Amino acid sequence: MNDLMSGNEPTMIGVSERTHPLLKRLKDDGHFSEMADAYRFGVALALAHGVQPDEIVGTRQTVFSVATIDPDREIATAVNAILGDDGSSIYRRVERLAEWGIRELARHAEDGEIDFASLLSAAARLVEDGDL
Amino acid sequence: MKLLSLSMHNFMPYKGENTIVFPEDEIRNVMIVFGDNMRGKTSLLNALRWVFYGKALGRHLREIPLHELLNKEAAMESDFVIEAAVVFEAEGHRYELRRRALKRPMVAFPSRPEDFQVSVGLQKDGMALPGHVVESEINRFAPEQVSRFFLFDGELLQEYESLLIEGSEQGRRIKEAIEQVLGVPTLINGRDEAETLLKQFRRHQQRDLSHVVGLERQAEKQAEFQRRQESLENDLAMLREKLNQTKSERSSLDDELEKVDSIHRAKTRLDHLRRRQSEIDKRLGAISVDKQLTLRSAWKDLLQPKLAARKEELYAEQTKMTALLAEKSALESKRDDLQQMLNEDTCPTCGRPAEESKRYEAGKLLGEVEAKLRRISVDYVSLGEVNARIREIDRLAGVGAASRIRALDEERARLDVELTKIENDAESLSDQIKGVDTAEIARKRVLRDSLLQEEARLERDVDDRTREIDKVKRELAIIAKSLDDLPQARAKRSSAMVKVCMAVEKLFEESIERLRKKLKAEVAAKASEAFAHLTTQKSYSGLEINDNYGLTILDENGARVTVRSAGAEQIVALSLIDGLARTGRAAGPVVMDTPFGRLDLRHRDNILRYLPTTTGQLVLLVHDGEIRRESDLAPLASRIGAAYEIKEVSPRHSRIERVHS
User: Is B477 helix (H, G, I), strand (E, B) or coil?
Assistant: First the structure.
């Protein structure tokens, strides 16, 4: 039985208290229509960059139910496929990836606009260049 | 008639005293006055018009109110005297005509025509003539009706084009003006008087016949048609008056709207920009929503490179496992064959009994195959897992968000640039129309359009009434003929008078037609002669005149040239003016304001060579765009008797100076 099937997975996930306002801002500034969209994008961005995220520092703020963020368990599948199974909780890893990804998106948003097309193209180049 | 000098005092832009002296030499009879637009060329023409006829004309031939003739700077300095004086020679006498407008004593600042008192004085050989003969004396040499041909505004050339439109109301009015010049009205007045008498005697006749037994019905019928004719004629007169009024109101609105045309255009453009701005705003909103929707699934695109790499690994694993499985299957099949051969002692291929040496080899081979099979271990669970993982990754297919988002970003950037430009343009247009009542402009535009429609309706009504009057006249003629056949009717004096009046009217009518025919032939011949000198297209054979005095060019085969350029229109119009001027009066002075507007160099040269030969004096008021002083005057050099230039002192003050003699 893998982690997906285990009973140790959280039912609610989120980000740190420090990152939560950044997530909210991504929605409020119109970059995403929902916070959940920004959350998923953040997770994928971190995975694309091959980030091995640290544990979340400080208080964790739960924002979504797992069923909302990953109703078809696609994110879990992607994490498992790309990072492999290290025996830990997949959705805790998802949280850590989201923490990094959202902060990265917030950094890009500092210029006012996030160049999503470039972010998407850069992800492809990272693999082609063998950076990861 | 020969003009000698013109003096102006505070007349329009000419502040204080300004005098020009006309060339008197018969050969050097051309005077050129140069002046930029808005400097006072037309005011010079108007000074002559005002001194001769007491009126100055603005756009669309509308009279300029007297108080607007006063120089604005002079008015600011409380100098309220307007004066123009012309000295001319005619029939061996020297005349000095002076017109003066003075502010009335009780008026502080004149702002209406009534605030001025106008006086006119004419001296003949130094002797003042009595006031009541001034007008008739002027009309002997320069009748006002003819003035449009010798005080000539180039802008009006276009009017003559309407003569070609058969039945147009404007054409009819110009035709009347032309016939006025040519003397046709004398006969027309005669015909009209005969017609008035005819109506009068018809009424007598009706009274007489109403008492004759058996003719009452005829009399009643005639009376009815006559009443109908009078009613239609009154109607026609009213319609014509209404039409003139409507035209005047419409042209006045046209002038007002022309002044604010730039404002109207700015407002229209601003409205268009605002609509575009709103469209762009909507599209930007839609782009934003579209982008957000695309981003909802875009996270999968971010993972595609990694997932593809992972899938490659899984495929490699799957291939390895599948190959092992195939190898195991082949070995198992081989093992089964060898075992069968050893058990049955026959060759599995040909079925013959196996030789001993062969059995030995088969046993050895079976041992090797069994050893290999023991070494091969296939993990079916792992293979299943690999296959499942490949399927899971396949579920995470990308959505192609990058290209879609790039396309949306590019469109948004383009629209942002357009929006910025629109905002800048809108700001500048808003500044332009700030403080202007655009609603009032819109109201006037709608009003003008409705007046135009009314004009068209009135013109149709005028045509209808004219046709109806002709019909009634035909009916009356039939009745008159039938009465003439009846001895009881013929015996009445009134019937005899009706007959005489009808004959006189017919005589005038025929005379008018004969005179018109003769004049038209003369005008056509003279205009054709002028045209031959003025046109650069020598293959044209001449001009054909229509009932309205409209002229059509004939080609070398005598066929009508139906399509002609704006320049050709102007040449034809100038030919007509020259033809009319020479048919209607003796050669005298001609003053032309901006006559070369639409003409090319060769046509202009032709005019400059030809007109001095047909006029007593030719005064050309031109701007630099029409004539380049240094080069274009060469063909005319030997005929120029004087040249003046209008110089700007201030926007409201011009001075005229002699530059060449």
Answer: helix
pLDDT of residue B163: 65
Range of the domain at A122: 12-128
CB contacts of B309 in chain A (<8 Å) are 127
In chain B, which residues have their Cβ closer than 8 Å to the Cβ of A132? 306
In total, chain B counts a number of residues equal to: 661
Residues from A in contact with B at Cβ < 8 Å: 30-34, 37, 40-41, 43-45, 47-48, 50, 72, 74, 77-78, 81-82, 115-117, 119-121, 123-124, 126-128, 132
> CA–CA separation, B473 vs B459, rounded Å?
21
Task: Domain of residue B504: give its range.
Answer: 181-259+458-513
Measured between CB atoms, which of B289, B305, B308 is closest to A126? B305
Q: Say what the ipTM of the complex is.
A: 0.91
How do B640-650 and B14-21 pair as beta strands?
unpaired
Helix (H) / strand (E) element for B447: namely: helix B438-484
Q: How far apart are the first and last CA of chain A?
A: 29
Chain B nearest C-alpha distance from A12 (Å): 20
Q: What domain count does chain A have?
A: 1
Interface with A, mutate which of B287, B292, B302, B399 (most A CBs under 10 A) = B302
Residue A7 pLDDT greater than 70, yes or no: no
The answer to whether residue B416 is domain-embedded is: yes
- Residue B565 contacts A, CB cutoff 8 Å: no
Q: Could you give the CA distance from residue B425 to residue B233 in angstroms, rounded to a whole number?
A: 57
- Decide if pLDDT at A3 tops 60: no
Q: Which of B8, B47, B7, B5 is nearest to B23 (CA)?
A: B5
Report yes or no: B512 and B187 within 8 Å, Cβ to Cβ. Answer: yes
**CA separation, residue A82 to residues A44, A132, B318 (Å):** 10, 12, 17
- Residue in the structure block whose two tokens are 């492809």: A124
- Could you say which of A43, A116, A127 has the minimum Cβ distance to residue B309? A127
Instruction: Tell me whether B308 touches chain A (CB under 8 Å).
Output: yes
Q: For residues B455 and B436, what is the distance between their CA atoms, to the nearest angstrom?
A: 29
Does B246 lie in the same domain as B271?
no
Least confident of B32-46, B337-351, B516-530: B337-351
Nearest to A41 among B298, B393, B402 (CB): B298
Q: What is the DSSP letter of B70?
A: B
Number of domains chain B contains: 2
Q: In this structure, are B378 and B483 located in the same domain?
A: no
Which pLDDT score is estimated for A53? 84
Overall average pLDDT of the B567-593 stretch: 77
Q: What is the pLDDT of residue A65?
A: 94
